[in-house]
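User: Working on a comparison across species. This one is Carboxypeptidase M from Athene cunicularia. Can you predict its structure so I can line it up against the others?
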Amino acid sequence: MKPASVRGRARPAPGDGGPGPALGLQLWRSGGTMRDVVGILCLLSVAAALDFKYHHTEELEAYLKGVHAAYPSLTHLHSIGRSVEGRDLWVLALGRFPTHHKIGIPEFKYVANMHGDETVGREILLHLIDFLVTSYRRDPVITRLLNNTRIHIMPTMNPDGFEATKVPDCYYTRGRYNKNGEDLNRNFPDAFENNNASIQPETQAVMNWIKNETFVLSANLHGGALVASYTFDNVTGSLKGYSRSPDDDVFIHLAKTYSFNHASMYKGMGCDRQTFPEGITNGYSWYQLEGGMQDYNYVWGQCFEITLELSCCKYPPADQLEKFWRDNKAALIEYIKQVHLGVKGQVTDRNGNPIPNVIVEAKGRPHVCPYRTNEHGEYFLLLLPGTYVINATVPGFKSMLKTVEIPDNTGNFSALKQDFSFSEVSIRSRAASCPKTPLYQDLELASAATKPTLHILVLMTVMLVAFK
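Assistant: Here's the predicted structure for Carboxypeptidase M from Athene cunicularia:
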């Protein structure tokens, strides 16, 4: 499936409807105090004036609160936890139903700044928020996207690290880690080897967040390279190769979708003479990483996540931020649309009651931690267009198989809908039991990683000796 493309759209002109002083007048007429009115107008002015600059914690919080005050029916602002130093880990959810999950509407997330000194993602996510809220009901594509998707945006996962990085610098590392000196992208449970790192507050907050939402697609934004990297990042063994997931074709498509909609990533010219064909790479092929967030999302969160490296310079000067936004704008939007790939539906009993914890997977794509329905009996499977056999299994009952023909529905903002109805009544399936241990470690195929075979190693040895 060829990645689609999207053209940048002009921001609506100031004053084209939307919130403004009228909201303050409405608050005054409804009994609000003058202090309330002044406060809401201050927040609105913050929301309306997003500059291309670095926003430190207080400014970032003020902006997010201003956006929520200006668009209360379109946004939901909440903190999923606190950092080591007590800073809130803010998330802004956007959509027609921003406060809660709505059956049939997939959940999407962007996370940035988990390395505090990698700052571009933090700022372009603020501008993405600005673009989404100001385009709603003005741009038909963005309107349909927000009506059919719940989008969660976390501008910073490591606010302590960002505040510790005082001066923009391309290779600054002081703020990379959290306050406890831990690399948050090495801090998650690992599916291939034991990760003995102590789980940090920021990591635990994200793990809880993933557990509590039905995330389908995600990306985490980094800096220091220019490439879209996809799972797996790790593998049993240490030989260099390619760590292939059961959904490798989907991950390649997702990475290419971002790369080909980016201004230059698709050219494959990385940083410091690095080259990445088509601007993408398998994570393990690039370098081995233990305890990464994207593998955790895929194995334990039932969420496809890729890692987006957006800038050669980790903390570039602020006067470059506008260009970074222009370079990434179309890719950010087109990538969100991919949450509508594949098939979705509900699993119910004879009386129409939803059945949670049903294993639902596509034949030939077994996950070491089986994908299961949520509390509403829902499932979401990201699949490329084609013919698939979908298997719904309630342990203790017979399985149900259905053959589906999946079209490219991303432009329609809805995956193919395929429900399953079991003939039994009041089925209760046990909750998923998938321990946070190296699940792949003892498997014979160990994620089907492609490693150099013995005869290739022998041939390489002979060539090295011959041409030494």
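For your comparison, note: The domain at 50-338 is CATH 3.40.630.10 (Aminopeptidase).

User: Helpful, thanks.
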